[in-house]
Amino acid sequence: MFWKCSTFEFDTRVPVVMGILNITPDSFSDGGSYLKPADALSHAFKMLEEGARIIDVGGESTRPGAAPVAPKEEWARIGQVVETLAREGVCVSVDTRHAEVAAKAVAAGASIVNDVSGFRDPAMRALAAAGDFGCVVMHMPGTPETMASRAQYADVVNEVRDYLAEAAASLEAEGVAPARICVDPGPGFGKTPQQTIELVRNFQEFRHLGYPVMAALSRKSFIGYAYKIDDPIERDEASAAEALMAAELGATVIRTHNVAATAGALRGLRPFAILGLGANVALVAEPGEEDEGKVAQLNHAISQLCLLPDSQIIDIAPFYKSKAAYYEDQQDFVNTVVLLRTGLPPKELLPCLHAIENSLGRVREIENGPRTLDLDIVDYQMYVVDTPQLTLPHPRAVERDFVVKPIQDILPGHVLADGTAVDAVPEEQRLGRAWRLQRPDTPPNSL
């Protein structure tokens, strides 16, 4: 997936670090540190040297209870810095909720508008429609002055996800290309520490929306709550650890105060592997319950994947039923896809998958024939290989409906390591037609 921001384009398969530059007297952790343009610019270039690819410049504090700043004053604080950085070829993001400030910043060369109010203002949406800058759509109930009193959710993850989906759709309806949009669940903005922790432990849910996901966790109060660190300045190490966890779950843009610590932590990010799972021979099943038996075998395989060394399952697609492909004289399959973060290189991962297959009596007598369990490496992050033992990405991935549809559920817009879009083959031309498997406890036609 790529995030297009004016003349910049970011491949978000690798986390993009955004350095925070607050030119404010009252930001919660560094207010007053960079009020002079020379100090602000010096800090910006330091963050770039440490690994930031974007500098996010803000002139209004949005901490809980913060008083609003007039657009004229906000621009007076940041204008010279935005202009200078843009002139030097830096990808500048402007952190503002005011269309007047955003317009001036874009005219001065800013490539991203990071709007904590989620582009609710029609003037902001109109500006976005008229430009080509990247748009960061954040969730915040109310305003910085009122958001703390509005931290009320029945299901914070689902409600924030639905809000972001609607906000992004509103931008698209105005003519903003989806590739320009990034979503930010807004940790700490109108959420209690407990609610924020629930959000950040479920970042994969926001990846399902099909846009890059920002993790703006740095020095937030939930880190103080979880790690028992009162002073925001002392939260950088914990913030870096949280950034790594968010990246493993699918966050693609990491906003941080301490670029060096965060970039260092992200060097520990494990590659992702997309695994395809399938079965069409039920080992134990009553007549008429064969699908349940196949599902049980896939669940067994998933439980075994949980035991792989230095590996963690990040996401599991819904189960699909599919017609057999290639060798058609056999029963229908049940399929799914698993997203795995793993320290195992492909040549070590593959025999582990074969061992799991063998544990369920996999027999390889007929090519593409019936099987109790099939585990394939479909894609491995930024890794392309073609040997007699292993070809990656899987050479038939995009022609298989039972592979493409589950991937689209958990990784919309995914591009394989060789640059091929996972949906490159039209659905009507794919083999192994697949449809969402009806759960036994679900009424007909409800999926």
From TrEMBL:
<dbReference type="GO" id="GO:0046656">
    <property type="term" value="P:folic acid biosynthetic process"/>
</dbReference>
<dbReference type="GO" id="GO:0004156">
    <property type="term" value="F:dihydropteroate synthase activity"/>
</dbReference>
<dbReference type="GO" id="GO:0016301">
    <property type="term" value="F:kinase activity"/>
</dbReference>
<keyword id="KW-0460">Magnesium</keyword>
<dbReference type="GO" id="GO:0046654">
    <property type="term" value="P:tetrahydrofolate biosynthetic process"/>
</dbReference>
<comment type="similarity">
    <text>Belongs to the DHPS family.</text>
</comment>
<keyword id="KW-0547">Nucleotide-binding</keyword>
<keyword id="KW-0511">Multifunctional enzyme</keyword>
<keyword id="KW-0067">ATP-binding</keyword>
<dbReference type="Pfam" id="PF01288">
    <property type="entry name" value="HPPK"/>
</dbReference>
<dbReference type="GO" id="GO:0003848">
    <property type="term" value="F:2-amino-4-hydroxy-6-hydroxymethyldihydropteridine diphosphokinase activity"/>
</dbReference>
<dbReference type="GO" id="GO:0046872">
    <property type="term" value="F:metal ion binding"/>
</dbReference>
<comment type="similarity">
    <text>In the C-terminal section; belongs to the DHPS family.</text>
</comment>
<dbReference type="InterPro" id="IPR000550">
    <property type="entry name" value="Hppk"/>
</dbReference>
<dbReference type="InterPro" id="IPR006390">
    <property type="entry name" value="DHP_synth_dom"/>
</dbReference>
<keyword id="KW-0479">Metal-binding</keyword>
<feature type="domain" description="Pterin-binding">
    <location>
        <begin position="15"/>
        <end position="267"/>
    </location>
</feature>
<keyword id="KW-0808">Transferase</keyword>
<protein>
    <submittedName>
        <fullName>Dihydropteroate synthase</fullName>
        <ecNumber>2.5.1.15</ecNumber>
    </submittedName>
</protein>
<keyword id="KW-0418">Kinase</keyword>
<dbReference type="InterPro" id="IPR011005">
    <property type="entry name" value="Dihydropteroate_synth-like_sf"/>
</dbReference>
<dbReference type="Pfam" id="PF00809">
    <property type="entry name" value="Pterin_bind"/>
</dbReference>
<comment type="pathway">
    <text>Cofactor biosynthesis; tetrahydrofolate biosynthesis; 7,8-dihydrofolate from 2-amino-4-hydroxy-6-hydroxymethyl-7,8-dihydropteridine diphosphate and 4-aminobenzoate: step 1/2.</text>
</comment>
<dbReference type="GO" id="GO:0005524">
    <property type="term" value="F:ATP binding"/>
</dbReference>
<comment type="pathway">
    <text>Cofactor biosynthesis; tetrahydrofolate biosynthesis; 2-amino-4-hydroxy-6-hydroxymethyl-7,8-dihydropteridine diphosphate from 7,8-dihydroneopterin triphosphate: step 4/4.</text>
</comment>
<dbReference type="GO" id="GO:0005829">
    <property type="term" value="C:cytosol"/>
</dbReference>
<dbReference type="InterPro" id="IPR035907">
    <property type="entry name" value="Hppk_sf"/>
</dbReference>
<keyword id="KW-0289">Folate biosynthesis</keyword>
<dbReference type="InterPro" id="IPR000489">
    <property type="entry name" value="Pterin-binding_dom"/>
</dbReference>
<dbReference type="InterPro" id="IPR045031">
    <property type="entry name" value="DHP_synth-like"/>
</dbReference>
